[in-house]
Amino acid sequence: MLECTPAPTVLKVSYSIAQAAAHSGLSIDTLRYYERIGLVDPPARDSAGRRAYSDEDFRWLSFLTRLRTTGMPIRMMREYARLRLLGPGTSARRRQILADHRREVGERIAELQACADILDFKISHYEQIERLGEPSPDAQEVTA
Questions:
Q1: What DSSP assignment string belongs to the chain?
Q2: How many CB atoms lie within 10 A of CB 101?
Q3: Where are the coiled-coil regions (predicted)?
Q4: Which residue numbers in the chain have pLDDT < 70?
Q5: Which is deepest, 16, 27, 39, 48, by most CB within 10 Å?
């Protein structure tokens, strides 16, 4: 005979706006702003009417934070958020938004790498000056 065990109880944890701000790295004002402009669904409310953020809210906030960190404009984030609410039928457009943004991020990474290469060259140049006491003749043009 098989034993029947009850399904485990899933405890839903909620977080205040101050806890959400601390956990997400966003300010309380930013959380409210994101809610006001439609980037974040209004969170549930606790028995006292205060915002109660869930783990799912944190996952979404984390994703939004990554988009902002990579320079995605708020306008595009809002479009993505709006499409997300419309469901799976919008996946092609959401994928395209992310693919376009990923291409832009790659271009910026390449630009930053070129800048880092120049900095590395200049650092090496000054290390050589410090070791030898004078710049090499071929480095004269880049001693700025």
A1: -PPP-PPPPPPPP-B-HHHHHHHHS--HHHHHHHHHTTSSPPPEE-TTS-EEB-HHHHHHHHHHHHHHHTT--HHHHHHHHHHHHH-GGGHHHHHHHHHHHHHHHHHHHHHHHHHHHHHHHHHHHHHHHHHHSS--GGGGGG--
A2: 18
A3: none
A4: 1-12, 134-144
A5: 39
pLDDT digits (tens, 9 = 90+) for 34-62: 999 999 988 888 888 888 999 999 999 99
- Provide the CATH number for the domain formed by 12-71 in this structure: 1.10.1660.10
Where along the chain do its domains lie? 12-71
pLDDT for 46 equals: 85
